[in-house]
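In this section we walk through a basic example: taking a raw amino acid sequence and producing a predicted 3D structure, encoded as discrete structure tokens. The instruction is simple. Fold the sequence below.
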Amino acid sequence: MMQTTAEVVTLGEGAETAPSPKKNKMNRRRRNECIWGYVFIAPLCIGFLLFTAFPLVLSIGYSFTEYDLFSPPKFIGFGNFIEIFSSNTDWFLRSLLNALVFTIGVPLGALLSLVVAAMLVNISRGSTALRMIFYIPTICGSVALTFIWQWMFASHYGILWEFLENLGFHLTDDFGFLDEEHFMASMIFMGLWAGLGGGLLLFYSSLQNISRDLYDAAALDGAGPLTKFRAITLPGISPVLFYILLTGVVGSFQAFTQFQVMTGDIISEHTVMPVWWIYRYITGEWGYRYGFASAMGLLLGLILIIVSAIQFIASKYWVKY
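The resulting token sequence is shown next.
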């Protein structure tokens, strides 16, 4: 009996416990879930590598070369970046200034969307239909919208021209909504109209998520409308406002289609935008200078990264999550 017990103990110490069928089934399920997970995210990963990561790395390399597509790239160091800031290509710097002016429409658009959203929140009937109407321009193509506004901005026969004439304004032949003096203001106005719907829906949802009890408590304490907005509304919508400002500024610096269509592809000092200027060198209108265009694109990307980083740092002081 003692020997049998010792043998059992020895066998128990040396033998490995066999996995249970239930554990094998769980391991197989987890393995299958991992495999299918990788299968479903594979298209997105492959698309990111082929159309984002690889072109980005390639453009960084080309920015230090002179490359015209017909001959091998020739390394020139920082020659392209030096040329960007030279007097011969100061139009790129001018395009950055135009983009900076165009960003004025971002906070104006956010304010307009917030005001309209606040009005719709307090409307019991017709709010859904009004939101749909305001959102329609957002889903329309930018080319079609630009053609419509090009007709509306037209001198003598445009809708806006006739509207001002009916109000009693006597417009001269020298005046034009798309001349150099008024062009950027007209583009900002068109951007406000076209982008109103997207910001409106975001603010509308954000305002609905703010508890009405907070406003009732503030009213009992004697708070006025401005105090309620500063202490309740603004903190409640601050994440959405930050998102709109961040994406709006980046989109303003990347604006291209509406400017090209509005001017009929005729570039000038007062209408040029950064992406449009880069596009000119890529399409060969001033030579196929892919290295120089890559340098300008890289510089524009760095500017957007810096601007976004500043916005993220500043958001710590006013965005409340």
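Looking at the output, two observations stand out. DSSP finds 14 helices and two strands in the chain. The CA atoms of residues 259 and 265 lie 8 Å apart. In the next section we compare this with other chains.
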